[in-house]
């Protein structure tokens, strides 16, 4: 017994005669009759009473017909689901996004596009700092990350640049720096400096400190924080100054101002990141839609 014979059986019942079913399939009538006999032999019971007017299902045939319909429908569903999974169009996708980037137009457009193209995929979006995202991707607890990352620092990961940001000096409107903005990083040497912990964004932390060293800037760090929002709050409270991605100033408190410092030219690439072991890079576009 195979699915072909089951489909032949359903066609005969639906058409009411073997001849009509043979024309619909299409298949030669003797061949169809032979397939039905083989099915009955395999099952071990009779499916039809054959009459001059057509076929009449036996009691066993009636039960078998109903269950066969369910079986073939389930089989088509299972087959389609497997096909969707192979094409990255089914299941779930775990996405981490650094907290300040949820509402960037580039990101929201990507998520909306993905939702329209892959409505059967359930999205799990979790705010995470870059450092914890990298750890989660390595441990297969996250499929894709949207984070600040310099690719050369994580050569085992695959990435694609979505957006490039730059750093700005952030200080309160009432500070001396607001009255006399610095012309270079070294001008900040005597200022109280609010900074982020290295484990928040390791690659950016190391790159920035290398830029500081090259520019003769030794930050006087008076407070370390885990996220940009806390850093802004402390600067707003007058505890010092800091350097933040320019994007973070979009919704900053009104008593904060920002300045571009000429010798701080390091770009912050916002990357789409995944691990090739857990998310096949050859199927990246069809899987994540990005």
TrEMBL record:
InterPro entries xrefs: LysR_HTH_N (IPR000847), LysR_subst-bd (IPR005119), WH-like_DNA-bd_sf (IPR036388), WH_DNA-bd_sf (IPR036390)
Annotated Gene Ontology cellular component terms: protein-DNA complex
Transcription regulation listed as a keyword: yes
Statement: the UniProt record of this protein carries the keyword Transcription regulation: yes
Positions of the HTH lysR-type domain: 1-58
A molecular function GO annotation: DNA-binding transcription factor activity
UniProt entry keywords in alphabetical sequence: DNA-binding, Transcription, Transcription regulation
PANTHER family the UniProt entry points to: HTH-TYPE TRANSCRIPTIONAL REGULATOR CYNR, TRANSCRIPTIONAL DUAL REGULATOR HCAR-RELATED
Family affiliation: Belongs to the LysR transcriptional regulatory family.
Protein name: LysR family transcriptional regulator
Species name: Vreelandella glaciei
